[in-house]
Specification:
Length: 285
């Protein structure tokens, strides 16, 4: 029996390795490649032609949304299942618009990951149960925020991500192998389309749309009064999701409830990131 070939696109090594180990069990799947950013995922998908790509949504250089669009433009037969720590409707709708046929929250069990791969290979779609329920309930209702983003070209979206990640026009030009003048042109076009005319606003928009991870601090320098102020983005240690989980697992003195640093019985991380013994994994960032 032919094994289903899979490409894993995920920028966190521990998650890639966890998925790789878990998908080997049973011998039904063959992981043919691993990518740590969207650009690498596009290259490997073209080279390896996997049956399924497990695609992290928020990755550096090129996010999962744009990578999905580029992969499917080159090979529409590939099935893309999106992985995200954020199950918001806007992320799901944008993934579907890019051609993804599945969407799983990273808190899913390996059983759901396997089920998703099996279903999309049969030509079906597959979503985490909570997402599937919302999609059915909201059928035909547009999600606010997706229309403007869908107007951007693939290149404009690439420029948007790199700018939101804090790269200057010269760095963007080098990364995309285009001229600085072309970068400036794309930047102006995307600002006009989004009706956002400052870098801090673009960064907030990119976070809201799942283009970059929601773990950056926006620092605006005052400039000298002639519009020369600069906006920088710097990554912070914790995401909002991690902070919420940490707060929930703390007692009144600010220390973790479980002091041994191991996993609780509910399969959630509470300290050192080790897996529990029930065969489930936490894929959250």
């Amino acid at each position: 029996m032919k094994k289903t070939t899979i490409l894993i696109a995920e920028d966190h090594q521990i998650v890639r390795e966890g998925l790789l180990a878990l998908l080997k069990v049973g011998g039904e799947f063959e992981v043919v490649g691993e990518a740590c950013n969207g650009r690498e995922a596009v290259t490997l998908a073209a080279k390896l032609c996997p049956d399924v790509v497990l695609m992290d949504m928020a990755m550096p250089v090129l996010n999962g949304l744009e990578a999905t669009g580029q992969i499917l433009a080159d090979n529409p037969k590939i099935k893309v299942v999106m992985l995200s720590a954020h199950p918001d409707d806007v992320y799901v709708e944008r993934s579907i618009a890019k051609g993804a046929v599945g969407f799983l929250v990273k808190q899913s069990s390996i059983h759901l990951v396997v089920k998703a791969i099996q279903e999309v290979c049969l030509g079906n779609t597959f979503f985490s149960p909570s997402i599937a329920k919302r999609l059915q309930h909201n059928k035909g209702v547009p999600v606010i925020g997706t229309e403007l983003g869908n107007r951007l070209t693939s290149r404009e979206s690439e420029v948007l991500q790199l700018v939101a990640e804090g790269q200057a026009n010269k760095q963007v030009a080098a990364e995309l192998h285009i001229s600085i003048k072309t970068v400036e042109k794309h930047r102006q076009h995307l600002m006009d389309k989004l009706q956002i005319h400052e870098t801090a606003g673009l960064t907030r928009y990119a976070m809201d749309m799942g283009i970059i991870e929601n773990r950056v601090s926006i620092i605006v320098s005052p400039g000298n009064g002639n519009g020369s102020g600069q906006t920088k983005t710097t990554k912070t240690v914790k995401t909002e999701t991690v902070k919420a989980e940490t707060d929930k697992n703390k007692n009144g003195n600010g220390k973790p409830k479980n002091g041994n640093g191991k996993l609780n019985g509910n399969g959630k991380l509470n300290g050192n990131g080790k897996l529990n013994g029930n065969g489930k994994e936490g894929l959250g960032k």
